[in-house]
Amino acid sequence: MNKFNAQKCFAYGIRFDSKSEMERYLYLRDRQNKGEISGLECQKKFTIVEPQNYGRKRIRERYYIADFAYYEKGRMIVEDVKGYKKGVAYQLFTLKKALMLQKYGIWVREIE
Length: 112
Hints:
By secondary structure, the protein is of the alpha+beta class. 29% of the residues lie in helices and 40% in strands. It contains 2 helices and 8 strands. It has helices at 19-33, 87-104; strands at residues 9-11, 14-16, 38-49, 52-54, 57-59, 62-72, 75-81, 109-111. 13% of the residues are buried.
């Protein structure tokens, strides 16, 4: 178990951080099989801050890793399953969510 009492789960050879995340994947997979969505990806990585130099120091890029990304009616949808909405981890997520909107024009859907 992790610090939020979520148990890691497996489905179709994929490891999920929680039962809720696994259930969301199964729902999205079913929608994809029905042709309602396409291009379903798990743990899709987006660069939200490009690498840069500061004097002699090299600052590496920063990422947001989405739980799920897929296409619906030709538009990319990005989702993150959230069960715990308190603390530093959630505050960091809200910052990354804002950067995703600014850089890519994508509003990250929070799935409870």
